[in-house]
Amino acid sequence: MVRLKDIAEACGVSIATVSRALNGLTNEGKERTAFICQTAKEMGYYPNAAARTLKTSKSNNIGIIYEDMMTHVYFSTLFDSLRRESEKLGYDLTFIGRGDFTGQQYYENARQRCLDGVIVVQADFDAAGIMHLATSSIPTVIVDHTYEGVDCVTSDNRASMEQIVRHVYLHGHRKIAIIQGQKGMVSRERLAGFYKACVELGVRVPVEYVREGLFQNAVACTEDILELMKLPDRPTCVLCPDDGSAVGAMARLHAKGIKVPEDIALVGYDGTLMSQIITPRLTTFSQDCTRIAQEVFSMLIDAIEYPDTHIPKQVTVVGKIIEGETV
Amino acid sequence: MVRLKDIAEACGVSIATVSRALNGLTNEGKERTAFICQTAKEMGYYPNAAARTLKTSKSNNIGIIYEDMMTHVYFSTLFDSLRRESEKLGYDLTFIGRGDFTGQQYYENARQRCLDGVIVVQADFDAAGIMHLATSSIPTVIVDHTYEGVDCVTSDNRASMEQIVRHVYLHGHRKIAIIQGQKGMVSRERLAGFYKACVELGVRVPVEYVREGLFQNAVACTEDILELMKLPDRPTCVLCPDDGSAVGAMARLHAKGIKVPEDIALVGYDGTLMSQIITPRLTTFSQDCTRIAQEVFSMLIDAIEYPDTHIPKQVTVVGKIIEGETV
DNA sequence: TGCTAGATTGTAATCGTTTTCTGTCATTGT
DNA sequence: ACAATGACAGAAAACGATTACAATCTAGCA
Known about the structure:
The structure is a homodimer of 327-residue chains. By secondary structure, the first copy, chain A, is an alpha/beta fold. The first copy, chain A, has helices at 4-11, 15-22, 30-43, 49-56, 73-89, 105-112, 127-134, 157-170, 185-201, 218-230, 243-255, 273-277, 289-305, and strands at 61-65, 92-95, 117-121, 140-143, 151-155, 176-179, 210-211, 237-239, 265-267, 284-286, 314-317, 320-322. In chain A, helix 9 (185-201) links the parallel strand 6 (176-179) and strand 7 (210-211). At the A-B interface, helix 4, helix 5, strand 2, helix 6 and helix 10 of A face helix 4, helix 5, strand 2, helix 6 and helix 10 of B. The structure holds a DNA duplex (30 and 30 nucleotides).
């Protein structure tokens, strides 16, 4: 391993001079600087990250706390976007937060490795711990969950659900059912949007039309839909928690002789590739992961670079309906 | 931030003593050790990772080089497994390898941050660079690609394709077509297995039955299938590069009035959740990501702990056919 | 009691950088 | 020609841990 010291010896200057030359500090003479840089490159020098971190308390590393849900298309897409963005900005992404972490430990773990910032995705699990982290001196951005007074970026679940309801309303639907995902802020927000739009549009919602379901679980979704179809006053349109559920349910319905959209209209969520390649194309709602990632990093970078003047804010990113053929 | 020094002062002992006590070095007296540990905990001490890494050249961090393909279910599943395994063993996972890396840079980047090891997934992109890394002093395991003399774990694409061919053969198919994925070792291996099984079973394969396709691209897959259906001597069974393609294609075929499996048998690949919740359930091949992850880490840990005696090996993990209703 | 072995603990060097402070020159103004 | 100024380079002190080595203390034994 090549050290600053080796270059210093090779060039016949001091370590400090090499360090400054390499870091572009204006101090040094121009051609000497060039010579040092040249030599460093030839010798294959790379600064030791640990030493630099130790001295500067900057690691160029951003921690990411993710539940084990990478297999859900939304989250893998979001991750891809986050990674691309972090790459662009010169940060590496490290997965932190062992499964059994709680309370202070998120914070301590981040502190321990001098992370420059932390991104928490879907912080539904340990409010106290997450808050401790988010209100600490370590820049933190929360994705898809809102806490007071800390940086949050959420795809606006409430507004999107409103959009969806209005969309199907415009297509003539007055009996709209909803199947929710796992309990949590996302589901709550969507339900709130659902009710809000229905109230505003004067659409009556019988309690039986609102069902608890699961994300990414087409079996559950199908069961729920079949239950809905048994109702004396059956809905004409069902809003599913995500595309995976909707696609799976659609296939099952189809096999049962129930036609989409003739017998029942279906709306998905996420705007996945899959939703657009099946027949009929699913009407769904696309969340703009690229935008989300950009917002996340813009807030994070601001918090990192201007820790004193940074003001936490809550940003919502609004997606859009992708019109398919199932409504 | 609490330092060793702070604890030392609080306890009235030297820094070295605290360090030894905390690391369980047998040197220290029992109750003094206990007292130090207790105090450290009370003060909320966490060792500074950078300092420790600088001194010991161990980071407890494993780098992972992944192309941007997290949205493919196979890779997200694999990643989940890798992460779970790394968590269990106490390592963190850091995404490294900026998009424009080449040659030595993978190695230098890993060296720079004192990574204890590196996992390279689908190393199809920069053979020279990857080899430089893999043959360096940094423990490296390559997933889903085979290089001579370095640690590799692959799902046995050749053997699985053979299994698939034999499976459909047993179901009476003699006209078997294959749609490949992106060019690369995975596709090559699968094709080799396909030919091998066909030859052994005495199945004739017209050149038109072998088509180049794309992974995770149902549109391309559908086009390919439709082309195949136009052939004067059409195949009775088509092997698709992955479940996503197969599911999408199936839906399109269905819409065109071509029935699966009556008119054409279809086989997917990956054994995803999706493949099992659609109707008809897709016949597919499940890759055992958990096993792959275990093998990866077993090799990695061995290479890390016994760098001198470690012998690189090539491991293949065999998956199994999931019988659906499309053959 | 005096000496030695063994058990603890402390001192200080080290890991590779960054950065402050000091010192040396050369340049400029008077 | 001399002092003041500024540009540049080097020495050395951190950052927070680990660890080889030296130093101290205790106890066991003659």
